[in-house]
Amino acid sequence: MANREDFMDALAPLLAAVRETQVTDPNAATALSSRFPVGSPEVQKVKQLMREGVDAKWLCDRENDGVRYSRVQKSADGSLSIDAVHMSGAGMAHTHPGGEFDLCFAVSGNPTFDGQPEGWTVYAPGSWHVPTVQGGVMDILYFLPAGAMKFGPQPEGTTAVGLQKK
Questions:
Q1: pTM for the full model?
Q2: How many CB atoms lie under 10 A from the CB of residue 112?
């Protein structure tokens, strides 16, 4: 049975890659996908351990409006946080003040996250969306620069991304 320590150990190389990637790079998702494709042993190990953690409820142990979630880790210096989410359908609208890196895992069906298949997605600083999983269920890891996320309607001057349905 997986535990938080095993999960964090498996996540370490992916976390290092996220830290080395500029969230403002328009090719960031492609770069992460090239370095750690969803079918790679490293990503598959994280997927397996995340699924075990969600099933055991030490990951995604809170729920709001049908979306299960939890904080995985916040760096000591506050430069990055990692959140875990288990969802289908639409989540809560939010802005990414510092951007957002996501690693999405299909759980059931043929799900997409904001229209994208299982794998990496990256949102630039100042982007806004209603995170939406369609066609099934996903487990998602959110890597948030400075741990920043602001819930609410689309602020003036932000860029809408993904599917804006609720």
A1: 0.91
A2: 19
Strand, coil or helix: what is 18?
Answer: helix
Per-residue model confidence as pLDDT tens digits over 23-62: 999 999 999 999 999 999 999 999 999 999 999 999 999 9
Within-domain flag for 81: yes
DSSP 115: T
What is the count of structural domains for the chain? 1
Query: Residue 132's domain is classified under what CATH number?
Result: 2.60.120.10
Residue 153 near residue 93 (C-beta atoms within 8 A) = yes
For 131-166, what is each residue's pLDDT tens digit?
999 999 999 999 998 878 888 888 887 777 754 332
User: Both ends of the chain: CA-CA distance in Å?
Assistant: 36
Element (H, E) at 134: strand 132-145
